[in-house]
Amino acid sequence: EEEASASARAGGGAKPEDLLQLSRNEQESFSKARRQHRQVRAVVYVAELCLTRERFRRLLRPRELEVLARVRALPPEAVFLLCKMYWRKPTWFWVREDLARHYGRDMRDFDGAVAELIACGFALSFAQACETDDGCKGGRATGGGGGGAAAA
To answer: Would 13 be classed as within a structural domain?
Structure first.
């Protein structure tokens, strides 16, 4: 199915590579989310949709297109971790602090990760609009769990 193929294309190496180093609990949570809630596939699918459908592309600024392309290239595990942090604390400064604490690294190392994080929220905000698009198969791209506010 289309959303599964979009998810498959999201594989491959991405930076920061630290995002792949998930704890056992995080890996289990990711598996559960992928099976039951589809948030990760929703992000990847909607990013794909925004980048490939002309009517969505016209609504996006060049920077937003660039960041969505970076999200599409992230491994699903990284998308999951970023989404988890976004949904818990939708304030960019706090998220940046969380990432730094999580990995014990300087906050400046994670500016790129936060850019992807914002794009995750931006992409999720398009899920509702997708419901009216025939290519979305009746809105199956929407993944439960709220928090998909549009990024400023």
So the answer is: no
